[in-house]
């Protein structure tokens, strides 16, 4: 179906110049002079090649209908992820980069949403938040107030997260997978 370019978002799939692309990143750019435009980072569904495209905001593009299915990650081998469909128990393998920047949060046993177009996997969406163990946290600087200060910490999967001063190494925290931000201390 034809839609305006300004309605596109990450994980949507479009057809452009005869090829299918999964949108990885969307930016609305408002230059000081001239018309606004949409900048998209996309990945070719069949080849995996990434590309950047710009559209005018009112330009129309062909958006493809995707189906979602819940799958479980069985294991990861390098850049490949082996998944099992939760309904049919069919196993299949996709590239880890289908999850975009959230690929660093993928772990064995995690339930994810797989977007498909005509049965072909085109995108991988992890849960909105994950619980991770903090393995390294900077010391609190004396004189900082607890309400407005954050300090850097490193989680078990190597992600750097800004956390409140009371978080120490060994604490489990909940992290937002879309922007790697701290949500709360995990309830044990």
Structural features:
OB fold (Dihydrolipoamide Acetyltransferase, E2P); SH3 type barrels; five-stranded antiparallel β-sheet; mainly beta; 54% strand
Account of the 3D structure:
The protein has 188 residues and is mainly β. It folds into 3 domains: 2-64, SH3 type barrels, CATH 2.30.30; 67-125, Nucleic acid-binding proteins (OB fold (Dihydrolipoamide Acetyltransferase, E2P)); 129-185, OB fold (Dihydrolipoamide Acetyltransferase, E2P) (Beta Barrel). Helices cover 0% and strands 54% of the residues. It contains no helices and 16 strands. It has strands at residues 2-4, 13-16, 19-29, 37-44, 50-56, 60-64, 67-77, 80-85, 91-95, 111-117, 120-125, 129-137, 151-155, 160-163, 172-176, 181-185. The strands form 3 sheets. A 6-stranded antiparallel β-sheet has the order 1-6-2-3-4-5, with no helix packed on it. A hairpin with a 4-residue loop joins strand 15 (172-176) and strand 16 (181-185). It is flat. The N and C termini lie far apart (46 Å). 22% of the residues are buried.
Which helices and strands, and how do they pair?
Layout (H helix, E strand, L loop, with lengths): L1 E3 L8 E4 L2 E11 L7 E8 L5 E7 L3 E5 L2 E11 L2 E6 L5 E5 L15 E7 L2 E6 L3 E9 L13 E5 L4 E4 L8 E5 L4 E5 L3
Antiparallel strand pairs: 1-6, 2-3, 2-6, 3-4, 4-5, 7-8, 7-10, 8-9, 10-11, 12-13, 12-15, 13-14, 15-16
């Amino acid at each position: 179906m034809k839609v305006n370019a300004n309605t596109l978002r990450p994980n949507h799939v479009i057809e452009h110049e005869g090829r299918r692309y999964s949108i990885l990143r969307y930016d609305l750019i408002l230059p000081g002079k001239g018309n606004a435009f949409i900048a998209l980072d996309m990945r070719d569904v069949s080849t995996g090649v990434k590309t950047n495209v710009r559209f005018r905001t009112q330009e129309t593009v062909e958006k493809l209908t995707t189906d979602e299915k819940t799958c479980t990650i069985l294991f990861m081998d390098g850049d490949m992820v082996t998944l099992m469909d939760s309904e049919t128990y069919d196993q299949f393998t996709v590239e880890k980069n289908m999850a975009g920047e959230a690929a660093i949060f993928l772990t064995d046993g995690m339930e994810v949403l797989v977007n498909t177009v005509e049965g072909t996997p085109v995108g991988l969406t992890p849960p909105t938040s994950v619980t991770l163990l903090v393995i390294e946290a900077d010391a609190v600087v004396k004189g900082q107030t607890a309400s407005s200060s954050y300090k850097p910490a490193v989680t078990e999967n190597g992600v750097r997260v800004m956390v409140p001063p009371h978080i120490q190494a060994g604490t489990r925290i909940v992290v937002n997978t879309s922007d790697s931000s701290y949500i709360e201390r995990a309830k044990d």
